[in-house]
Each structure stands twice: as structure tokens, then as C-alpha cells.
């Protein structure tokens, strides 16, 4: 190894360790690490804003920005409060039915919007309904978080690792629908059955408290009906644009930005209020990560790891797929799956394109995506949705401890990963 590659690796490992321990704000960590890489010359200063290979991936950053603006406008309509109250009334206060309704809302909305935002919108409503029923909100919030991580895996925009993987591999929105949606739907259906057993001690029904839920008026949650219609119309057009982007030859990021602009213009909302809803810290975090990983690519470390991985698995794509899926789920369960996916994507790129059969090795991307996405359920810190949901629960007085979440997360991750491997093995190896 050269001195520059040793230096790049040392800075990267130190930053990753600090991110994992969460002792210092992760945005500060990646900014300091990326600056150190630029100053020492291991990251190419002239390319970090312009190179698709070793610089910031603006397609990912701008896609996230566009969707955050869209969600910021949609949030003002009160549609998620409406859905939460509607779910509570449809369940008639029966705990398991209520949990299934909440999981359905989060699992269906997560592939369309991002799962962190869905958790931000659904958890407060869940707390209101659970308080009415006089039942602990923790099982419902945990189930919603787990369902959002499973549901978000279905599309290109549902989970941040998918955006990173899709952009690196050149996979379209429709590619994700064809390859990920079937297994996500199956896994979610089985997960619903699993929750019946995991949370069986928490399903206590009280008819008196159920009546108080039935008294809630969901229509009052919609603050502006005209605004809601405009938002849903634009959102529908954006989704159509995503499905046609490979035909139109327009990047998803462009579609998201145009959709965000149109939504702001037709609704007439105050732009400063919408921009205040954008998670700028997350976008900066992504930019810093791309610079750090670009330094590893620039110094040849990613290429070396990729070649080592090819040598380790030989030409055995079954072994490579199993290693990627289970390994990603294991590592992703203990570290935030965003930096993990950012780091691993270039390595998987080498495995796919420089292996003995690049045409048939493409399924490794799906094994990688399923492992990274489902691994996000493993522990309380494995995905951003987990951290956000637990934080909201704690602030509402329904405290969720690290281990309280993790004991359900580990069971769900093991269960969903085994189901995912069965799908990958049958579809891409046995039936290929």
C-alpha cells in the first residue's frame, strides 16, 4: 500500500469509528474527515465537486432535496393525521387491528416518500391514539419503524441505501419495482403475522377506551382540502415521472426537483417555511461521505478490496450473493446503513463488473440492497428511521430503550434476511 492509501484508510476508519460510537455529531465527523482528506491530498480537490467517480454524487443529494421539499409541502395538509385517526377508528380500538393498520400506512407510504419522514409524521398520531386507548405506544411505534424499513426497500427512493445503490449501479425506479417489490410485499405480509406473536402480551382490549377513539373526527385533521388535492396531484405526476424516467432519459433527481418546484408554485406555500423542513444536516452528511469514499477510490483501496473479494469468492456467485446479503444485514445492524452502503457500493461494483460473468452477476446488487435495507432493523441505531422514531417516543413519554427495540429488531432482521435469501436463491440462481 502507498502512503496516500494508508493515510486515506486511517482517516476513514477513525471517522467510521466515531460515527458508530455516536460520541460526536456525525455531520461534524464527516466534515472534518473529508477536509483532512482534501488537505492531505488523498482526495482530489479539483474533482470532489465535479467527478461522478471520486466526488460528491449530486444525483443522490438533489433527489433527496427534491423529495424533502415535496414532503415539507405535503405535511402542511394534515393528511397523515387524517390517516392515523382513520386507522384508529377502522380498528375499532382493537390493539392488533390497530397495529396492522399503522404498519400498513407506514409500509405503503415509505416506498413513495422516504421512511424517516413517514416515521416523523406517523409516530405523533400513534401516540395520540394509544393515549386514548390507555395502552403503551411503544409496541406500535417499534412495529411502525420495522415496517417502514421493510416497506422502504421496495423502491429506488424508499430507503437511502437504495438511492446510493441505484445511482452507482445505474438501476432505474422500475428495476427496483420489478426486483424488490415482490420480496418486500411477501416479507411484510409474513412480518405482520410475526408481530402477532412478538407483541402478543401487549394486545389488551378495553371497550370503554375504544369508544373514545371512535369519537375522534379525522376530517378535522385536513387543514386545507384544495391544498391536499393539489399536493396529491403533483405527487402522483412525480411517481409517474419516476416510472418513466428511463424512457424519458431524465434522471430521478431532475424529476424530483421539478416536482418540488411545481408543488411549491401551484400550492402557493411560503418557500421559507418549506425550506426549513429540509434536513440540511442529512444532505451535508451525504456530501461528506461521498468525499471520504471518493478518497478511497482515488487511492486504489476500493479496487484492491474488490479484487480481494473476487479472489475470496472465486467465481462462485452463490457464495458472493449469500456473503453480501447476510454480511450486509449483520454489519448494517450495528452501523448506520447509509455510510455502510456508500462504502460498499464501489466494492460491489467491482465484484459485479470484474467478476467472471458480469451479465449474470447483476443480482449481487439486489442481494446487497436487501441485506443493507433489512439490516437497518437490527438495532436501535442501525437506521435513521430507528433513531428518529425512538427519539419521538421518548419525548412523548413512551420511552423505548436500546434493548427494548433491539430484541424485536434482531428477530425481525434474522427472519426477513432468511426470507430474502430464499427469494434471491430461487429467482436468480435456481430459476436463472
TrEMBL record:
<feature type="transmembrane region" description="Helical">
    <location>
        <begin position="58"/>
        <end position="78"/>
    </location>
</feature>
<keyword id="KW-1003">Cell membrane</keyword>
<dbReference type="InterPro" id="IPR004680">
    <property type="entry name" value="Cit_transptr-like_dom"/>
</dbReference>
<dbReference type="Pfam" id="PF03600">
    <property type="entry name" value="CitMHS"/>
</dbReference>
<keyword id="KW-0472">Membrane</keyword>
<feature type="transmembrane region" description="Helical">
    <location>
        <begin position="227"/>
        <end position="248"/>
    </location>
</feature>
<dbReference type="GO" id="GO:0015105">
    <property type="term" value="F:arsenite transmembrane transporter activity"/>
</dbReference>
<feature type="transmembrane region" description="Helical">
    <location>
        <begin position="283"/>
        <end position="305"/>
    </location>
</feature>
<keyword id="KW-0812">Transmembrane</keyword>
<dbReference type="GO" id="GO:0005886">
    <property type="term" value="C:plasma membrane"/>
</dbReference>
<protein>
    <submittedName>
        <fullName>Putative transporter</fullName>
    </submittedName>
</protein>
<keyword id="KW-0813">Transport</keyword>
<feature type="transmembrane region" description="Helical">
    <location>
        <begin position="254"/>
        <end position="276"/>
    </location>
</feature>
<feature type="transmembrane region" description="Helical">
    <location>
        <begin position="317"/>
        <end position="335"/>
    </location>
</feature>
<dbReference type="InterPro" id="IPR000802">
    <property type="entry name" value="Arsenical_pump_ArsB"/>
</dbReference>
<keyword id="KW-1133">Transmembrane helix</keyword>
<dbReference type="InterPro" id="IPR051475">
    <property type="entry name" value="Diverse_Ion_Transporter"/>
</dbReference>
<feature type="transmembrane region" description="Helical">
    <location>
        <begin position="27"/>
        <end position="46"/>
    </location>
</feature>
<feature type="transmembrane region" description="Helical">
    <location>
        <begin position="177"/>
        <end position="199"/>
    </location>
</feature>
<comment type="similarity">
    <text>Belongs to the CitM (TC 2.A.11) transporter family.</text>
</comment>
<feature type="transmembrane region" description="Helical">
    <location>
        <begin position="405"/>
        <end position="426"/>
    </location>
</feature>
<feature type="transmembrane region" description="Helical">
    <location>
        <begin position="98"/>
        <end position="128"/>
    </location>
</feature>
<feature type="domain" description="Citrate transporter-like">
    <location>
        <begin position="16"/>
        <end position="371"/>
    </location>
</feature>
